[in-house]
Amino acid sequence: MKRVLSAGRSAYMKLNLLWKVAVVEISILIWFLTLLRAVEFKNYYTPFVLSFVLMNSIMLLFLVFRKLYRSEQSALKKLLYDLINLSYSFTLSFSLSEVILRITYFHSRRLDVNDAFWLLTVFLSISIASYLSALKEKLRRLSLEKELQNLNMDLLRTKLNPHFVFNTFNFLAEAVRKNPDRAEEFTIMVSDYYRSVLKFKRQWSIDEELAFIEQYVLIQKEMMSSLTFDYAINIEDSAKKRIVPSGITQPVVENAIKYGIKGNSGGKLEINVCEQEDTLEIIIKNTGTPKREIIPENFGTGLSIVLKQLELIGGKIFAKTDGNSTCVSLLIPLSKGSELNV
Q1: What count of Cα atoms within 13 Å lies in the side-chain half-sphere of residue 149?
Q2: What is the set of domains in the chain, with CATH numbers?
Q3: Burial 223-243 (b: 16+ CB within 10 A, else e)
Q4: Would you call 12 exposed, middle or buried from its count of C-beta atoms within 10 A (0-12, 13-18, 19+)?
Q5: Which of 47, 152, 193, 327 is 20 to 30 A (C-alpha) from 126?
Q6: Is 285 helix (H, G, I), strand (E, B) or coil?
Q7: What angle do CA 302, 304, 308 make, to 5 degrees?
């Protein structure tokens, strides 16, 4: 289902791009025919240059300048900036079209002061806008990295959940009396888990994430030995080195065990990781369903932190129940290589 949705989103993006290109090209054609009529169809070259250069220049400049305010939250301000941007882009594009026409059609080898002024204005406008947008993007990334780091610390605190610590100690105390060998193995498992917790960083590979999750699942499986508890973790080879926020799947797995497997008196937990074009998809499916609907309003501390982490990097979380099973999907956008798109 998620693969179909991912393919649908990709197709939508392509159609959206084709639609924009089609609008520009149709505008060029209309402008070209209008200018042809104005010159009574005696000169085809001038209308073509003016329409082609003008419309494409407007689109290019508009998109370059739009980067400066694309993160603006207010719709009214965005509209106002768009109108100013469009007017400025049109003015520059019209002047640029005249210069190109003068050079190509009238073979003018001399550019007057006015031509030099507009060419310099276009060059400086693009350079300044590109520099400012790159600087703004860098500051945005630094801010997001800092916020992600803070969320990671919050997530780390949830891993040191006192209830979980008490439960492991109580289980260990009982195991020491009944089965010392089992108690020794369990102590090593818990020790390895908390060693991984203390190694938390801002992000790590999905391979490291799932190794950490497996440690947690094994501890829970041991403490729930009276129940039938099976698990499976599958990951595509191409996705193993992809980068994710550390511990982002743990709250989801914790809920799957607590409200799914345990609430159902046993069952199976399955984690699948695959890569869909520019998105990493982590699917966590478990037997059993929670008593409350899985929506942001009902999220606890752990899931709320996961939601914030995903929102910061442009990701999403989906949840659905089907019969006696629950499926939660985390969609994490990827950029070049294995870096997060932050």
Answers
A1: 6
A2: 2-143 (no CATH), 200-333 (3.30.565.10)
A3: bbeeeebebeeebeeebeebb
A4: exposed
A5: 47
A6: strand
A7: 120
Which residue in 214, 216, 218, 209 sits closest to 239, CA to CA?
209
Q: How far apart are CA 239 and CA 55, in angstroms?
A: 42
Query: Which tens digit of pLDDT belongs to each residue from 322-331?
Result: 888 999 999 9
Task: Classify strands 267-276 and 229-235 as parallel, antiparallel or unpaired.
Answer: parallel
pLDDT recorded at residue 149: 64
Q: Which amino acid is at 270?
A: E
Tokens read off for 61? 């400049």
In sequence order, the β-bridge partners of residue 234 are: 272
Strand 243-245 relative to strand 279-287, pairing: unpaired
Q: CB–CB of 243/203 below 8 Å?
A: yes
Report residue 167 as tokens.
């439960």
Number of Cβ within a 10 Å radius of residue 40: 7
Write out the two tokens for 106: 């009238």
Low-confidence residues in the chain, pLDDT < 70: 1-17, 20, 24, 28-29, 31-33, 35-46, 49, 104-111, 144-163, 200, 335-342
Q: Supply the DSSP symbol for 262.
A: T
CA gap 331, 212 in Å, rounded:
19
Q: How far apart are CA 291 and CA 256, in angstroms?
A: 12
